[in-house]
Amino acid sequence: MSADFHGVFPYLVSPVRANGEVDAPVLARLCDDLIAAGVHGLTPLGSTGEFAYLSREQRRRVVEVAVEAARGRVPVVAGVASTTTADAVAQAREYERLGCAGILAILEAYFPVPDEGVYAYFKAIADAVSVPVVLYTNPNFQRSDLSLPVIERLSRIPNIGYLKDASTNTGRLLTILERTEGRLRIFAASAHIPACVMLIGGVGWMAGPACVAPRQSVELYELCRRGDWVRAMERQRPLWALNQAFAKYNLAACIKGALKLQGYDVGDPLAPQAPLPPEGVEEVRRALKAVGAL
Questions:
Q1: What is the spatial distance between Cα 284 and Cα 294, in angstroms, rounded to a whole number?
Q2: Which residues contact 148 (CB under 8 A, 6 or more apart)?
Q3: pLDDT tens-digit profile of 165-223?
């Protein structure tokens, strides 16, 4: 595993026009601006990217645009999610062919999947590609999540080198770090306080809010990397207030609403999701102004 993923990876939105086409110019502009702001990577098809609401063709186009826009300046780590192993493997292989530097592996499930099935799903994705794989765990939305024993087993597969945790349990992250003995590097999510995750040994975060406050997120990361924890917490507090505002509404609606306030015509979240209500728009507007992102 040659890649070294670290820092701030914004979860990209997926701008889709009324006719169903991915709005490539808008997405490419967003990617270019995020890179100019100093982010360390891009993650299309995460939760903020509404992967569960897109067709296969739309998902492929989102990844293609992100890779083309990045032009090798930062790694693109694309989300792969499915209820079937065969489909997940096909997605992973396709995104590697498109030029992705890594795969963010997500398990969707309608019926519960036992630990052995969860392990086999993620192993099959890792075996199908040569790029690094980031495990994604989110107990709030996943019917079958990654247990600690499964995470420990998966950490021994050579190209599974990262875990992105979207729980609110920072103590569990410390347990994962201890049990995997350095084999897995940890990315936080919006649910965590990134500075705290960095303090216990994390390497960065993959999160939707970084799309709308990239410069501030990068500044926070650099303060954490230098161990300047007092200044890091000064920067973290207003950013966490932005997180709390987003937590009250649909995440994709919040990020898309915030980006529209910043001048990006990314559209509304895909139906049946609801767009941000007027009171939500005002709350997001206030939060963006408070962190200097508007």
A1: 10
A2: 172, 175, 176, 179
A3: 988 888 899 999 999 999 999 999 887 899 999 999 999 999 999 999 999 999 999 99
Rounded to an integer, what distance in angstroms lies between the CA atom of residue 293 and that of residue 287? 9
Partnered with residue 76 across adjacent β-strands are: 42
Q: Tell me the pLDDT tens digit for each residue of 46-83.
A: 989 999 999 999 999 999 999 999 999 999 999 999 99
Specify burial of residue 238 (Cβ count, 10 A radius: 0-12, 13-18, 19+): middle
Catalytic residue among 95, 162, 164, 256: 164
Residue 59 contacts residue 31 (beta carbons within 8 Å) = no
Q: Which residues contact 30 (CB under 8 A, 6 or more apart)?
A: 12, 13, 15, 211, 259, 264, 266
Beta bridge pairs of residue 207: 10
Maximum Cα–Cα distance across the chain = 49
pTM of the model: 0.96
Cα 84 to chain centroid, rounded: 21
Name residue, tokens 């898309």: 256
- How far is Cα 214 from Cα 161, in angstroms, rounded to an integer? 25
Mark whether 136 is an active-site residue: yes
* CA 126 remoteness from chain centre: 18
- Residue keyed to tokens 């003995």: 181
Q: Residue 269: is the preceding peptide bond cis (ω within 30°)?
A: no
Q: Which position among 95, 136, 162, 249 bears the catalytic label?
A: 136
3-class secondary-structure state, position 80: strand
Full set of structural domains in the chain with CATH? 7-214 (3.20.20.70)
- Give catalytic status of residue 260 as yes or no: no
Give Cα 39 to chain centroid, integer Å: 13
Residues in CB range of 78: below 8 A, 6 or more apart:
43, 44, 45, 63, 66, 95, 98, 100, 102, 103, 104
Query: d(Cα 142, Cα 46) in Å, to the nearest integer?
Result: 13
